[in-house]
């Protein structure tokens, strides 16, 4: 980001604070988070569960509002906009790939893509078919979401997010429940949009293998930005020098590794109680072990012994 002019910055987040009320208690989801994302860049936001990743993504996308701070996306000040302005912003300038697909079950694959186009006043069947081809779903325009596999549903969700050709794409855990090969395919589609077409992509992930494909990785923990790193270096978050940032990134990665082990132990207990079958246990075991190994590799790549 060094040397980028203001015009080259697509997303600006300055001192963002988000506080929720939960069961009568105040929960601080984000604590003075600040970052910037360049046009044509892919930024991955990584961190343990509950670190504030989805909250930050929702604020960038104009779905949620911060209690304090400033957010500017594609030159539009999201944090101070009215409801109608935000509606148009979400429809025309941001494509959101939701973690749970957010597809309409009573619409076909093509109709799901055409819906946001129609809402923007420019439906195009030819563009819808072009997007289906782009995400590898050519010939499946008449299928309903339930007739598609999990990976196909996620690819359809990407096509829906691209429907109105938005300059900004945000994706919440786009590979969370997918196998490695399918997950990489999803990420490569997003990379092509950024590096091939100049769009800006901000995605959240638990998986270092996905984060490694991004241009930079922002690490959140307990609502704070702990550091931003690339294959070349780790830069400090707010108030952190590089050495402190390295330690903070290491701590966050280790916490993610422990989360993977905990999920596996919980799955084993559920299997013993008869709450899940052997197929689900094997699936959780495979994903947990793969994630743990990916974290080990990332720690090693950063010069840390796991």
Automatic annotation (TrEMBL):
Pfam families: ABC_tran. Transmembrane segments: none annotated. CDD domains: ABC_MJ0796_LolCDE_FtsE. The keyword ATP-binding applies. Residues 11-247 form the ABC transporter domain. Keywords: ATP-binding, Nucleotide-binding, Transport. Gene3D superfamilies: P-loop containing nucleotide triphosphate hydrolases. PROSITE patterns: ABC_TRANSPORTER_1, ABC_TRANSPORTER_2. The keyword Nucleotide-binding applies. One of its GO terms (cellular component) is plasma membrane. GO terms for molecular function: ATP binding; ATP hydrolysis activity; transmembrane transporter activity. PANTHER family: ABC TRANSPORTER ABCH.1, IMPORT ATP-BINDING PROTEIN. This is ABC-type antimicrobial peptide transport system ATPase. It comes from Aeropyrum camini SY1 = JCM 12091.
């Amino acid at each position: 980001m060094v040397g980028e002019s203001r015009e080259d910055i697509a997303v600006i987040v300055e001192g963002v604070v988000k506080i929720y009320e939960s069961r009568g208690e105040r929960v601080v989801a984000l604590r003075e988070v600040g970052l910037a994302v360049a046009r044509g860049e892919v930024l991955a936001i990584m961190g343990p569960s509950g670190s504030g990743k989805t909250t930050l993504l929702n604020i960038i996308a104009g779905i949620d509002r911060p209690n304090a701070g400033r957010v500017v996306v594609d030159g539009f000040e999201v944090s101070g906009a009215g409801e109608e302005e935000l509606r148009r912003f979400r429809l025309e300038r941001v494509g959101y790939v939701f973690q749970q697909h957010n597809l309409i079950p009573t619409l076909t694959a093509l109709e799901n893509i055409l819906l946001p186009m129609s809402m923007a006043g420019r439906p195009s069947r030819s563009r819808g078919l072009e997007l289906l081809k782009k995400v590898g779903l050519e010939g499946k325009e008449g299928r309903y979401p339930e007739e598609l596999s999990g990976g196909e549903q996620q690819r359809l969700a990407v096509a829906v997010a691209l429907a109105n050709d938005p300059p900004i794409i945000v994706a919440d855990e786009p590979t969370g429940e997918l196998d490695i090969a399918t997950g990489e395919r999803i990420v490569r589609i997003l990379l092509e949009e950024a590096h091939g077409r100049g769009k800006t992509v901000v995605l959240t992930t638990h998986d270092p293998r996905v984060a490694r494909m991004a241009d930079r990785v922002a690490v959140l923990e307990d609502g704070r930005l702990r550091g931003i790193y690339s294959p070349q270096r780790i830069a400090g978050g707010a108030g952190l020098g590089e050495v402190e940032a390295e330690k903070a990134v290491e701590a966050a990665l280790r916490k993610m590794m422990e989360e993977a082990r905990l999920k596996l132990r919980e799955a084993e207990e559920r299997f013993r109680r008869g709450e899940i079958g052997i197929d689900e246990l094997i699936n959780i075991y495979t994903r947990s072990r793969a994630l743990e190994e990916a974290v080990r590799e990332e720690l090693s790549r950063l010069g840390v012994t796991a």
